[in-house]
Amino acid sequence: MNGPIDILKAVRSFRYAGAGIYSLFRYENNARIHLIACVVVAIAGIFFQISTIEWCIIVIQIALVWAAEAFNTAIEKLADLVSADYHPVIKVVKDTAAAGVLLLAISAVIVGGIVFIPKILLLF
């Protein structure tokens, strides 16, 4: 370590990350869809009183999907900057990044089903 931690630099980094989160939810439709799904899942988690372990798993899934959406958005914005015109390689890059989000979203739905379906069935 070269010296003490630069607290002001760390605070600026958090501010930049916060601006990125704000931009993600303000301008990206899919991020807002994931946010609505998160709220629904949180309400269901409270209603069904899921366990601490279940909450941890759900929170990890939510964070993974949001992180993937942020990475996907960053890749798409950078690809658009590199080539505003259609380019087949850029298309593959964007499609592959979107596939990563889709795979994690499917995983989150499966985990949600594992956690919530047994609790829903107990209501009947």
UniProtKB/TrEMBL annotation:
Pfam family, one: DAGK_prokar
Matching InterPro entries: DAGK, DAGK_sf, UDPK
A single GO molecular function term of this UniProt record: ATP-dependent diacylglycerol kinase activity
Domain of life: Bacteria
UniProt KW keywords: ATP-binding, Cell membrane, Kinase, Lipid biosynthesis, Lipid metabolism, Membrane, Nucleotide-binding, Phospholipid biosynthesis, Phospholipid metabolism, Transferase, Transmembrane, Transmembrane helix
Regions that span the bilayer: 31-48, 55-75, 97-122
Membrane topology listed for this record: Multi-pass membrane protein
Localization per record: Cell membrane
Uppermost EC category: transferase
The EC number(s) this enzyme carries: 2.7.1.107
Major location category of this protein: membrane
Protein family: Belongs to the bacterial diacylglycerol kinase family.
Name the UniProt record assigns to this protein: Diacylglycerol kinase (ATP)
Organism (species): Dyadobacter fermentans
